Structures are given as structure tokens and as C-alpha cells.
Amino acid sequence: MTWLIFESSPWVLPVLFFIVLTLLIEVPFRMRGLLTKSSAVKTGDWDVVQVALFTLASFVLGLSFAQASGRYDTRRALVVQEANAIGTTWLRADQLDRGEEKRFRSVLTDYTAERLTAYGSTDRSVHERAIELSDVYQSELWQISSSALAAHPNNLGLSLLMQTLNDTIDVSAEQLQALTAHVPTAIVTLMLALSALAMLAAGLRFARDGSRPLVLSVVLIAASVIVVSMAIDYDRPQQGFITVSLAPMQRQLDSMRVPAGEP
User: Fold this and answer.
1) Which of 85, 98, 150, 241 would suit a FRET pair with 214, their CA atoms being 20 to 30 Å apart?
2) Mean pLDDT within 177-187
């Protein structure tokens, strides 16, 4: 279920959900003769159940929206924070000796490129490979800067470089956690189930009344699918329709690749 919700094509779940909701309205209406004969439930009781189900579905939908929106904002802020940390680390690399500075900045450029690949790829194997490489680059960056500081322990510039490098590594871990954590699958499943039950109640009510307004039914189904899909899509940072912009990281990488002295 987790794969279907968060990792499959962004079109799969909306299409399946649209089909399911359509069947939940159409099948009871097609069987209205049998349902009318066998049902002893009063019209007022149908209204109570239908309103209660739609209310519960709306409550869980609002909860999912709030959680997904908060996670989306966190991911977006972390992209900017990581780009700033990398930029500061790049500038403070001039505290290293000339040879080590060139090596450090080359590794930092490769590291930034791998982070971008990890965040932007929808292929799991590519993502995992990029994370592994970025971990290797982190170790190399740390070794270069820590060795320089050990050789010059009283150098304040090197101490500041170590601090910003540490910030870069820390925010990368936060970003990775933010990209892989989602709204609990149980909550999303409950939202889908309650929405389906509410639509079934509407279908049973149409069957009982012997009238199914086609246009209004399509509008109701489409609106339900769009709203539920948006709540889920908010929590699919690089695989859905609403993605987290990686522009700050890309701009930082582009500036690092410009040779010194060029605009």
C-alpha cells in the first residue's frame, strides 16, 4: 500500500480511486430494485449516516493535508538551508593551502552534484547510489579539513571551515530524513476508506430515491479524487505533480562550476 500511495506513478492512484468511487455510486443505483425491496432503513437514517461519513472523511482529509503541507514546507526550507551551508563551506575553503583548497572544492562540487541527483531522481537505485557517493565525499571533505586543522590548531579560519562543513553534513541528514518520511500510511488509508464509504452512502441514497444526477455525481467524484490526490501529492516531494524546487541547490552548483575570474 505504501508503494501505491507514495512511490508509484502519480497517475495510478487517482485513476484507480476514480474508478472505485464511480463503481460505489453506479453499482448501488443499478441494483436499486433489489436494494429498495430489502432495505428497511428510513430516509432520515440514511441522511445521518451519509453526513457522518462525509464529516469523518473531511476531518481525516484535513489532518492529512496539514501534515503533508508541513512536511512540504520543511523540505523546501531545508533545500535553501543546505544550499547556503554548501555555499559558505565553499567560500571558507580559501583557508586551506592552495593544493588542498583546489582538491577540497573539487570534491565539494562533486558532492553537491550527487546531492542534487539523490533529491531529483525517481529511480531508487540511482537515488541510493547517489547517497552512497555523497557519504564518501563527506568523509573525504572531513578528512581534508580535519587534517588541516590538526596541522594548524590555532587557525580560526580552519575552525570556522570545520563548523560550516559540520553544518553541511547535518543538514544533509535532515534533508534525507525529510525526503523519505511521509504521512503515516495508516492515516492515508483511513482517508481513502472513509471517502469510499461516504461515496457508497451517496450511491445507496441515490438508489433508494431512484434518481442519480449524472453531472452532479461526476462532479462529486472528480472533486473527491482531486482533493484526496492533492493531499497525497504534497507528500511525494520529487515523484508527484507538486515537487520541491531544487533551484537553490542547482544555482549553487552552477556557481561552483564557473571558473575563477569569470562572471
Assistant:
1) 241
2) 79
Exposed / middle / buried, residue 156 (Cβ in 10 Å: 0-12, 13-18, 19+): exposed
The set of cell numbers assigned to 218 is 461526476
Does residue 248 lie within any of the structural domains? yes
> Structural domain of residue 229, as residue ranges?
2-34+43-256
CA atoms of 231 and 70, how far apart (whole Å): 11
Cα–Cα distance between 227 and 212 in angstroms, integer? 22
Q: CB–CB of 43/202 below 8 Å?
A: no
H-type helices in the chain, by residue range?
2, 12-30, 32-38, 43-92, 98-120, 124-151, 156-180, 185-209, 214-233, 247-257
> Could you give phi then psi for residue 21, rounded to 5 degrees?
-65, -35
Judged against a pLDDT cut of 90, whether residue 205 lies above it is answered with: no
Q: How many domains does the chain have?
A: 1
Residue 261 within any structural domain of the chain: no
SS (H, E, C) 96-110: CCHHHHHHHHHHHHH
Per-residue pLDDT tens digits for 114-156: 999 888 877 778 888 988 999 999 999 999 999 999 988 888 9
Residue with cell 525517481: 122
The contacts of residue 234 (CB under 8 Å, 6+ apart) are: 65, 68, 69, 71, 72, 240, 242
